[in-house]
Design goal:
Elements: E1 2-7, H1 10-22, E2 29-34, H2 39-47, E3 54-64, E4 79-88, E5 101-102, E6 111-117, E7 131-133, H3 136-142, E8 148-157, H4 165-168, H5 175-182
Parallel strand pairs: 1-2, 1-3, 3-8, 4-6, 6-7
Antiparallel strand pairs: 3-7, 4-5, 4-8
Length: about 180
């Protein structure tokens, strides 16, 4: 299969390429693109992709909850699949088109719901295990039935201490996510 991987940030693209290069005898041909962060960047990228059999959105995401209180498979650096995405409005209200979009799981990974927001959200009222990001809703809205989302857990909300995000995620390896894609 010809698979396109979209990453919101360049650091994610580099991690995906490193992981792909570690797979010997890959079942798929991969192209990796960086979309940029946010819903508009994702939409523009989706509209200009070359032909493929499958598109995967792959990137970091924060999850609501304390790592020590979450199941081990939802720990730092673990891949998850997003099967439900909703949109939270810029000023804290739901947009008309914010109704959750649901899809079936494609992989054997933990399945979670995602909240897309244009600004940092207060996490005190969000359900534990909710993934927070800025692109999933747009991708889910524009994707084809065979396309899917993998997120890598990068941080936990609310943050208990201040983090330097890029230093914090340096140690994360995308190989488990690419190995999951190889099962398609």
């Amino acid at each position: 299969m010809n698979i396109i991987i979209i990453t919101p940030m360049e650091i994610e693209r580099q991690k995906a390429l490193i992981a792909i290069n570690k797979i010997s005898n890959s079942k798929h041909n991969y192209q990796v693109f960086t979309s940029g962060i946010g819903r508009e960047s994702m939409a523009k990228t989706m509209m200009h992709l070359p032909d493929s059999d499958c598109v995967v959105l792959l990137g970091f995401a924060a999850i609501v909850g304390k790592e020590v209180e979450l199941p081990k498979n939802l720990g730092f650096g673990n891949p998850i699949e997003i099967t439900t995405a909703s949109l939270y409005g810029y000023e804290g209200g739901l947009f008309e088109n914010g109704k959750p979009i649901e899809t079936e799981a494609k992989l054997n990974l933990p399945v979670l719901s995602s909240l897309t927001s244009d600004k940092f959200v207060r996490t005190t009222n969000l359900k534990i295990k909710t993934v927070v990001n800025m692109e999933d809703y747009t991708f889910m809205f524009l994707k084809r039935p065979q396309d899917f989302i993998i997120r890598i857990i990068s941080d936990f909300l609310p943050h208990e201490t201040e983090i330097d995000f890029f230093e914090h995620v340096k140690q994360i390896n995308f190989l488990p996510a690419i190995q999951a894609i190889e099962t398609v």
